[in-house]
Design goal:
Rossmann fold, alpha/beta
Length: 407
């Protein structure tokens, strides 16, 4: 029986819906990874035991530091040199890196007794650091996820190159993030583009507008710079100037930009048309997508380099039959074919967005084929059963290669 450990920063986390869907899917396929949550989390999830790390165990570093320095001096030297060679990109990453390393030092001996075949860090930050450090200490191969946040924000994670070099497989979910990995010197053998999957396929009652010439719009995501919400408001301001179309926009999510966006909505005079609805559950968001006619995503590259790959909410909106208008930045438009199952625009080309939305409001039947095509292509590209199978095959390949190298 193959034994694999999955490392998460915090599990489960309400906003990380795709990792929960994926874990359910791999379990339904008969694959039972052991789940480790490094920073808090729950000890039980859907009847599944979660191994939550107690931070008090970090006090045992007084024992484990000299122990592993004696047992694995070369591994110690490699990590210390990597930390010395380049500055940490930010305080958060400093904390995550040292917590991941500390976790590895404290837990490696116990991990060795479990006889895992593969260690998998779900994210490239703290979880991959933990998997990398345990791998260095006990010689078990590790793999890692690497998504847009991990790769682009302030130049990426502190030990990114070291983890890439050591990892047997690097999973990402978009071609744009894949290109970033290739720029780090990785090749197709190591980089695996495996989409984030969906497990729910809603049924839309009607593709007609609720009222003639009135469109219900939605945008979902954290209220942060990379989502481009200030460009979204400028698009909506232009749209409000068009006399023969009416709309309502619901912006779902919370974040540091809530108050600035509220002020901009008032400044543009959009307070009767744009609603900041705050955070919603996964089930509530599904229902909001079914009530919406079109989903808008105006993502940009933030000042710190952060950006989205394929935001989960785009395929979710596609599956609900929304008309998709998405930013041409990063990987957002990879989810659909431009002009066939959605539309891709530069976030600052406001007229393109408003012209299409006006036409959609006046001629909704013209866009039914595109919305239905989005549902079909979404099912083909993002079925979590298929993405989970692909992930499992890659784990099995790592195990096979490792067994072959030992023989």
């Amino acid at each position: 029986m193959q034994k694999i450990a999955f490392f998460y920063a915090t599990f489960p986390r309400p906003t990380e819906t795709f990792v929960r869907r994926e874990l359910r899917a791999v379990r339904e396929l008969g694959f039972e990874p052991k789940v480790y949550s490094i920073w808090g989390g729950q000890k039980k999830w859907e009847g599944f035991n979660i191994e939550c790390f107690s931070l008090w165990r970090l006090w045992t570093l007084f024992f484990w530091l000299p122990y592993w320095a004696w047992q694995r001096p070369s591994a110690f030297r490699d990590v210390l040199l990597a930390l010395w060679r380049k500055p940490c990109p930010n305080l958060q990453n400093w904390n995550e890196t040292f917590l991941g390393l500390g976790y590895g030092l404290v837990e490696a001996h116990r991990m060795a007794s479990k006889q895992y075949d593969v260690l998998h860090g779900v994210w490239a930050t703290m979880p991959a650091t933990a998997a990398y450090s345990v791998s260095k200490l006990i010689g078990v191969p590790f793999s890692m996820g690497a998504h847009a946040y991990d790769l682009f924000r302030k130049g990426g994670d502190w030990l990114l190159d070291e983890k890439f070099e050591q990892a047997s497989m690097v999973r990402t979910s978009s071609n744009s993030s894949g290109q970033r990995l290739f720029a780090h010197g990785l090749n197709d053998r190591k980089v695996k583009v495996i989409r984030r999957g969906l497990s729910h396929w809603p049924v839309r009652a009607s593709f007609e507008l609720s009222k003639p010439n009135r469109i219900n719009l939605i945008s979902v995501g954290r209220l942060v710079e990379k989502k481009g919400y200030f460009y979204l408001l400028r698009i909506l301001s232009r749209l409000s100037e068009r006399k023969n179309i009416d709309f309502q926009m619901k912006i779902v999510g919370m974040g540091p930009l809530f108050r600035p966006l509220e002020q901009e909505i008032e400044r543009y005079g959009l307070d009767k048309k744009v609603i900041l609805v705050g955070s919603k559950t996964e089930e509530e968001i599904r229902e909001l997508f079914l009530q919406a006619d079109a989903k808008l995503f105006t993502g940009i590259i933030a000042s710190n380099g952060d950006r989205d790959g394929i935001p989960n909410v785009i395929p979710e909106a596609m599956s609900a039959g929304c008309l998709i208008l998405a930013s041409s930045f990063a990987g957002a438009s990879e989810a659909f074919t431009d002009g066939v199952s959605g539309f891709s625009f530069h976030p600052q080309h406001f007229e393109e967005w408003t012209c299409l939305l006006e036409d959609f409001g006046r001629n909704p039947s013209k866009y039914q084929r595109i919305r239905k095509k989005a549902q079909i292509s979404c099912r083909q590209m993002f079925d979590v059963s298929n993405t989970a199978r692909s992930l499992i095959r890659n784990f099995q390949d790592i195990i096979h290669r490792n067994e072959k190298s030992r023989s």
